[in-house]
Design a protein that fits this description.
Number of domains: 2
Shape: globular
CATH class of the largest domain: Alpha Beta
Helix content: 25-40%
CATH topology of the largest domain: Phosphoenolpyruvate Carboxykinase, domain 3
Number of helices: 7
Order of helices and strands: EEHEHHEEEHEEEEEHHEH
Structural class: alpha+beta
CATH architecture of the largest domain: Alpha-Beta Complex
Radius of gyration: 18 Å
């Protein structure tokens, strides 16, 4: 089966329900197109994952296929960013940070605040991709525990690194600070060529997309501060 994910033609054959169902919105209209990426998961790989993590075969296939997809895009001007990404009026915003930072909580506030103006791109594992010198954030069927994603691709306006705090404040990170944070929230390959490709695409991304550190509480004021700053690219 051929799918369109992050504007790549991707070929794989799901076995179990979770991957089959979550891939449906990404099925390519023209199944005759040539795949740019081909990935597969063997029963032996599923066996090993089930044994190691004590999960269902259904979940094992889904996780492994996602990891293989994110590895395959390295070297193709794209990378995975552990974040919750949304689009407001066709512009993308990504919220990243360590587990427990409140990425999904902050995104849910944006959904309530902006209503129909907002589209959830991917609540856990979007792709960042450069096409014709423009940086995009893209939906994928691999979105963690909750199936919150859409088959969409929008220009990435800004990235926020979240920190929980009582008071809301935001500051733009220097490139070296942003690079360090993003490296902690992406998939790093052991292959030297893919690692070099990742560093190259990160360098270009951080030249074009501002990254901010957002200390925030759970409030609409935090949403307004983040949106107004990222939308205007101001500190």
């Amino acid at each position: 089966m051929l799918y369109t994910i992050a504007d790549f033609y991707v070929e794989y054959e799901p076995r179990y329900a979770r991957l089959t169902e979550r891939s449906q919105k990404y099925v390519a209209e023209n199944q005759q197109n040539e795949p740019e990426i081909k990935i597969s998961v063997s029963e032996a790989e599923i066996d090993e994952h089930v044994s190691k993590y004590e999960v269902s075969r259904d979940l094992a296939e889904y996780v492994i296929m996602g990891l293989k997809f994110y590895d395959a895009i390295l070297g193709k001007n794209a990378f995975f960013l552990h974040s919750s990404a949304v689009a407001v009026d066709g512009e993308g915003f990504a919220f990243t940070g360590p587990c427990g930072a409140g990425k999904s909580t902050h995104s849910s506030l944006w959904r309530k605040y902006f209503g129909s103006r907002l589209v959830s791109v991917n609540d856990d594992k979007p792709v960042v991709r450069i096409i014709d010198d423009t940086v995009y954030v893209c939906g994928t069927p691999f979105s963690g525990k909750h199936d919150i994603n859409s088959n969409t691709i929008v220009p990435l306006k800004g990235i926020c690194v979240l920190n929980q705090a009582k008071e809301n404040s935001i500051v733009r990170l220097k490139a070296i600070e942003a690079m360090s944070v993003i490296m902690e929230q992406t998939l790093r390959s052991e292959e030297p060529s893919k690692m070099a490709a990742l560093l190259d695409v990160l360098d270009i991304t951080l030249q074009r997309v501002p990254v901010f550190s957002l200390s925030c509480n759970i409030s609409f004021e935090a949403v307004e501060l983040a949106y107004n700053t990222l939308d205007g690219n101001e500190n």
